[in-house]
Structures are given as structure tokens and as C-alpha cells.
Amino acid sequence: MSKAEPLIRMRLHVEQDVFSVRQLGREVARAVGFEQQDQTRVATALSEVGRVMLAVGVDADVEFTAEPNGVPTLRVAVGNPLPGGAADIGPQLVQVGRLVDTLEVGDGETGTVVRMARRLPTSAPPLTPGRMDEIRAGLAEHIPGTPLDELSVQNQQLIVALDEVRAQRDDLARLNTELEETNRGVMALYHQLSDELEETNRGVVALYADLDEKSVQLRAASEAKSRFLANVSHELRAPVTAVIGLTRLLLDPSSEPLGSEQRRQVDLIGGSAGDLLTLVNDLLDLAKAEAGRIEPEWSDVDLRVVFGQLRGTLRPLATRPEVDFVVEDPGVPRLRTDEVLLVRVLRNLLTNAIKFTAQGEVRLGVRAVDGDIEFTVSDTGTGIPAELHERIFEEFYQVPGSVAVTGKGTGLGLPYARRLAGILGGGLRVDSAPGEGSTFIVRLPAS
């Protein structure tokens, strides 16, 4: 890329030329579009560099160049024919570097050169070729003033600077006054908030004490409920079992023959007693789970054996030709868990699915997901609305309008299955929608 044509050149011979180069630097800065403060910075930096360069005792050449491409920049090069002066001149220009964007001092074949650059403000007019020619023509007509003229200009600039400093000092005093008032307001607000926070803390402490008391009462009520369920279950199991035994004895062929109406009534008694015994057993299991009396016995479980056992024991329940009972071959062969509790969970879910599926299929599968194991029990039943997905895990709750195809529901199976899944270190959730069936997912840790 060719070097840009200089805007103007000047040679420094004597100390008086320092005033002239300062005037010229300010004029060039004004012409390319710098504001007044930046004009003063450029002029001051240039006069200081010129003074230092003349101090070595030889003439110095000053060259002004404007770069219109990229970021518009004014560049000034001040050089003398004596090489090796950078080491002496550089330290003297450290403060000057703060007045411009870049300042470099270097030695070359032609001597020592000081290069300065400052970017033009965004408000400056574009440096088109036509405007550059106008700037060169205007600078060629520039007539340097006397040192007294430059001193007058500097005095005016100093007066303006002092006025700005005084205005800034007044603004600072005003801001300090406002800050003090703000601080007083902040302190007052702080004390008010501290008092309110202290009062709130007292209320929170009292609330926590009340919550602790309620928690103790709730635990006591839960323990009392569990004891009640366990005791009632134990007490009811014996007479219910006795009623079932008596109905079997009355219906035994070796006993005295019964009339058809008597046999029907005894069958009703036996069916009701069987339903009651199922409810009693469910209550007892749920009470044990809530009381934390079920401790898992961990072992390596062969899931192929577990799935085969479920397939064999539940096949007699899935006797309707409208429903296919499918137990997939487990893709995960082994799992470390409690086999008895796992079988209870899966049997409970499968029994529930068979009970509420009128047609289609009930399917059991297992897969590995993100380091865990997921068992899925899916059916093609009526489905469950999303707003009831959590309620079905509450004791004794049944979906409104749901009717079991076979058997009767107690509303205790799903809460019991979820508690057992929690004891095994996992969880139980449901994915279902009305008319699309349901999928119950048991997720357990792989190890």
C-alpha cells in the first residue's frame, strides 16, 4: 500500500520554532475535525516533542499525515538525522504518550524518529480526496504567529480549563451534598428495614416453632394411623379367614347339601369375605411400608427368572381373549435389588393393568436409561387425565368413572407400589391420557 501524501511539513531550526509547530499542530487538528480539547492535546504533545528533539542540537523535520481508510487517524512524525537518540529521548516523552493514542520512538538509517497518532472523532467530516486537498491548500496559507500570540492563546485555553475545573469542582460539591443527603436517607431506610427484618425474624422463628410442633403432631398422628391400620388388619384377618373357611366348609361336597338359594348366598358371603381379606392384607402391607418396617435385602437378581415367574403367575388372570398379556424378554439380564419387593411392585402394577383393561394388551418391559433401569407396565385401558396423575397414588383414591373389568379395586395398590419403589431407591410415575392407555414406569438405580 502506497504511503499517504503528507498534509504539510515543517522544519524546526531554533527554539522559537517550537511555538510555530505548536500553532501548526493545533491548526492541523482543527482542520481534520478534532474538537478544541483534542486540538490542545495534539498541539501540546507536538510542542513537547519538538522541544526535546531540538535539545539534542540539530534540526528536526515535522510531517503531518491523515489516513482516511479504516479508522481515520492523524499521524505526526518528528525526526532528526542523528541515529541512536531513542534511548535518550524516549524516557523524556513518557508523559506525552498520555496526550495521544500511540507514541513510538525509534532509530533508523535516517536518524531518530518520534511517531504519534490520534484517532479522529466519529463526528469529524470524512477525509475524502477533495477535502484532503482543501486541507493542504488551507495549511499552505497558514502564517505562524509570534510567541506572544501563542502565549495569548495558551492563556485563553488555561482560562477555559480553569473555568471547567471550577465548574467540575462546583458539580462535585453539589454531588457530595446530594450524596450526604442520600446517605442519610439510606441510613434511615437501613434502620427501618433492620427493625422490620428483626420483627420478621421473630415472626419466622415463632412460625418455625409452630411448624416443629405441628410436625411432631403430624408424625405422632401418622404413627398412630400406622399402628391403627396394623392392629385393625391383624384383628380383622382372623375372623375374615374364619368366614372364608366356613363358606368353603358349607360348599364342600362332603357336607350336607344346600339348596340353590343357600349356595348362592354362601357364595356371596365367600366373595365378600375374600374382598375384605384382600383389603385387610393391603392395609397391613401399606402400614408396614409407612412405618419403615420393610428392610430390603440386596442381591443380584436375574431378571429373566423374575419375568418368567410373573408370566407364569399372572397368566391365569389374563384369561380374556380380548386382552393380550405380553412379558418381553428383559434387555437387562441382571440387577442388584431386593427380588421380593421388586416382584411385589411389578405384580401390583400388572394386576392393576389387567383389571382395568377391557381390550388390547398389557405389556411388561425393561431397559437401561442414563445409568438407571426402567421397568414399564403399559396397557390400552381408558387412560388417566393429567390432573389426576398424582392423586392416583393417594390411599383409597380411584379415578372417577373407572370400572374394573375384573375384580374390585381398593385404591391401595398404587400407593403401596410407590412406597416400595422408594424403599428400593427409585421412584414410580405414570404417563397417561384419556383414551390412550397408561404406562407406569418404575425407575431404579442400576447398582
Would you mind describing this structure in some detail?
The structure is a single chain. With 447 residues, this protein is α+β, with helices and mostly antiparallel strands. It folds into 3 domains: 8-145, Heat Shock Protein 90 (2-Layer Sandwich), CATH 3.30.565.10; 158-293; 299-445, Heat Shock Protein 90, CATH 3.30.565.10. It has helices at 16-32, 36-54, 86-89, 129-140, 147-251, 260-290, 303-314, 339-355, 413-423; strands at 8-12, 60-67, 73-80, 102-108, 111-119, 299-302, 323-327, 334-337, 360-369, 372-379, 427-432, 438-445. Strands 1-2-3-5-4 form a 5-stranded antiparallel sheet. A 5-stranded mixed sheet has the order 7-9-10-12-11, with helices on one face. Strands 6-8 form a two-stranded antiparallel sheet. A hairpin with a 2-residue loop joins strand 4 and strand 5 (111-119). The longest helix is centred in the middle third of the chain and has 105 residues, at 147-251. The model has no long low-confidence stretch (mean pLDDT 83).
List keywords for this structure.
447 residues, alpha+beta, Heat Shock Protein 90, 3 domains, 5-stranded antiparallel sheet, 9 helices, elongated
CATH superfamily of the largest domain: Histidine kinase-like ATPase, C-terminal domain
Average pLDDT level: 83
Count of domain modules: 3
The count of β-strands is 12
What is the CATH fold-level name of the largest domain? Answer: Heat Shock Protein 90
Instruction: Give the DSSP E fraction (strand runs of 2 or more residues).
Output: 15-25%
Catalytic activity: ATP + protein L-histidine = ADP + protein N-phospho-L-histidine
EC number: 2.7.13.3
GO molecular function: ATP binding
Main location: membrane
